[in-house]
Amino acid sequence: MDQLEPFPTDWTRALAIAAHPDDLEYGAAGAIAAWTDAGKDVRYLLVTRGEAGIDGIAPDESAPLREAEQIAGAAEVGVTKVEFLDHPDGVVEYGVPLRRDLAAAIRRHQPELVITGNYHDTFPGGGLNSADHRAVGRAALDAVADAGNRWIFRDLEEPWNGVRYIAVSGSGQATHAVDVTDTLDRAVASLEAHKAYLEGLGDHLMADAREFLEWISDLNAPRFGGRRAASFELFRM
């Protein structure tokens, strides 16, 4: 496979858009820690509160718990601005309402980099992706263009055409990477902050934060000079 290129650094502010609490922690958090260490401004936008994500906890109880875990996890990698949109977990719909909400956030935060999750039907290795992930990823790609067009969603804030890059985490078509050798421990701590969620997974591989994140970063290493890395599919605008 082609070697992964170093991720661009000529940007200042990023908005990371994810479907659920924990999504960013399962691959992007090590890179985000490296970016905040370098003085970058990274902010999180969660489309849902993850209320349908723990089988043993009812949604009304799960939502505030998972919201608190996400805020704690973000803090571990230097992110202090975390917003939630309250779309219903598990049944997020791609469409104009979601595009509108994401375009509004992009105009409000004015990022140069938009980070989102895998919008493809499958994950690397062939596992099926979830409907929420696909809907949010695709809507985020479209919302970048929507945010820059003053004739779309004309009741929102002024257009923002400053997005230079879109980075897709968890993609099987990754092109770029960030060295996470020095930030992997913080990425693990960020995922471990989702304690209730991880406990709800039982003995699943994804329940062991360190094992899972080391496995992912080690898979990327042969394509990135032997260094543990977080990988992204990168679009230049």
Would you give an account of this structure?
- The structure is a single chain.
- This protein has 237 residues and is α/β, with parallel strands linked by helices.
- It has a single domain, classed as Rossmann fold, CATH 3.40.50.10320.
- The protein has 7 helices and 8 strands; from the N terminus they run ββαβαβαβαββαααβ.
- Strands 1-7-8-6-5-2-3-4 form an 8-stranded mixed β-sheet, sandwiched between helices.
- Helix 2 links the parallel strand 3 and strand 4.
- The radius of gyration is 17 Å and the shape is globular.
Give the low-confidence spans: none
> How would you spell out the order of helices and strands?
EEHEHEHEHEEHHHE
Global mean pLDDT: 97
Radius of gyration (Å): 17 Å
What's the CATH architecture name? 3-Layer(aba) Sandwich
CATH class annotation: Alpha Beta
The SS-based structural class is alpha/beta
Instruction: Please report the distance between the alpha carbons of the first and last residues.
Output: 25 Å
Give the overall form: globular
Number of strands: 8
Give the percentage of residues in beta strands. Answer: 15-25%
Helix content: 25-40%
